[in-house]
């Protein structure tokens, strides 16, 4: 599971959960791969990313990359920033671990990189 | 006689075991059919050109449809209930992100996440109640309502499925409309039993969109005029029921041919054959 997936995933399929976002990550094994940089896609997806969730996930995973506290309009044009977002979003993959619902505390296991959202 | 439909043989998470899943990476016929369906579904999805979009693949299985998306330069998320199928997808090293989940419980995604959604031959599974707590109508409604919310405004969802009965089609479209979608059914090759394919083409809000037309297999061929042709000449019904008008030139030529075939003595055809004679006084 890449962080882009984590940014989109919620646990609102659980009964009684209204938001279920953001899910907390308990990583066990994290892998780093290289993915081709696609500038247009990153710029497009940046409009849709919850930036605070992404920062939280970076801290949860204990990554070396750091993201500035707030994202401003000018930074979205900055090539270096886009590459950093690309790295964080697409290059780190949680292979084993758990996702935890913030409201109920229910755990969703991640096995071989696939989050199990079955109830 | 036992039914051939896979939905009747068991729930999808059990039916698609290792053996069944392997077919989806080895059987070239299955791969071919799935790829063609995906191409058509993506065509109906009408994504903006030259842009990399985020697409949800519902019931992605081994990621055959996802590979088509990757080829077209889109990023995708795949959701499936079968672990064995997702394992095959990982073996094939598909580009998309895979999530294990039951679509009948809803989409576990945040609102407005995707630019579009496709689904190849998955929806019919929702019409079955595999557990006593399953209610197909409720599960379909849950599926469509959560799908609606996880799509961006104006995005499309194209869901190809094999309905078992016309009631299933009604049930599925009704629940989709109830969830707020507009759009409807697009049927390709409606007159063929085997080639007939149903696509539920849904629009999630946005401005009013025109429902695309289904293929008929006659694309590219010349348009057959539907109106009567205007003609100055008076039409004689020469070829009525395959026979020529009696005493006409063609009738005489045909008759001479028949006689010749019988071996009778016939004068050769010339430009004077069947010429009108002058009226006698």
Automatic annotation (TrEMBL), chain A:
InterPro entries hit by this protein: Trm112, Trm112-like
CDD domains per record: Trm112-like
Example GO BP: tRNA methylation
Molecular functions per Gene Ontology: protein heterodimerization activity
Gene3D superfamilies to which the protein is assigned, alphabetical: 2.20.25.10
Entries under PANTHER family matching the protein: MULTIFUNCTIONAL METHYLTRANSFERASE SUBUNIT TRM112-LIKE PROTEIN (PTHR12773:SF0), UPF0315 PROTEIN-RELATED (PTHR12773)
Family: Belongs to the TRM112 family.
Protein name, entry field: Multifunctional methyltransferase subunit TRM112-like protein
TrEMBL record, chain B:
Reactions this protein catalyses: a guanosine in 18S rRNA + S-adenosyl-L-methionine = an N(7)-methylguanosine in 18S rRNA + S-adenosyl-L-homocysteine
Region (Disordered): 213-241, 257-281
Residue intervals of the Methyltransferase type domain: 56-139
Keyword Glycoprotein among record annotations: no
Skewed-composition ranges (Basic and acidic residues): 229-241, 257-272
GO CC annotation, single: cytoplasm
Keyword Nucleotidyltransferase in annotation: no
Alphabetized InterPro entries for the sequence: Bud23-like (IPR039769), Bud23_C (IPR022238), Methyltransf_11 (IPR013216), SAM-dependent_MTases_sf (IPR029063)
One record GO biological process: rRNA (guanine-N7)-methylation
Key words, A-Z: Cytoplasm, Methyltransferase, Nucleus, S-adenosyl-L-methionine, Transferase
Residues of the 18S rRNA (guanine(1575)-N(7))-methyltransferase Bud23 C-terminal domain: 202-278
A GO term for molecular function: rRNA (guanine) methyltransferase activity
UniProt subcellular location: Cytoplasm; Nucleus
Short name of any one Pfam family annotated for the protein: WBS_methylT
Family as reported in the entry's similarity comment: Belongs to the class I-like SAM-binding methyltransferase superfamily. BUD23/WBSCR22 family.
Reported function: S-adenosyl-L-methionine-dependent methyltransferase that specifically methylates the N(7) position of a guanine in 18S rRNA. Requires the methyltransferase adapter protein TRM112 for full rRNA methyltransferase activity. Involved in the pre-rRNA processing steps leading to small-subunit rRNA production independently of its RNA-modifying catalytic activity. Important for biogenesis end export of the 40S ribosomal subunit independent on its methyltransferase activity. Locus-specific steroid receptor coactivator.
UniProt subunit comment: Heterodimer with TRMT112; this heterodimerization is necessary for the metabolic stability and activity of the catalytic subunit BUD23. Interacts with GRIP1.
Record protein name field: 18S rRNA (guanine-N(7))-methyltransferase
Native source organism of the sequence: Adineta ricciae (Rotifer)
Taxonomy of the source species: Eukaryota, Metazoa, Spiralia, Gnathifera, Rotifera
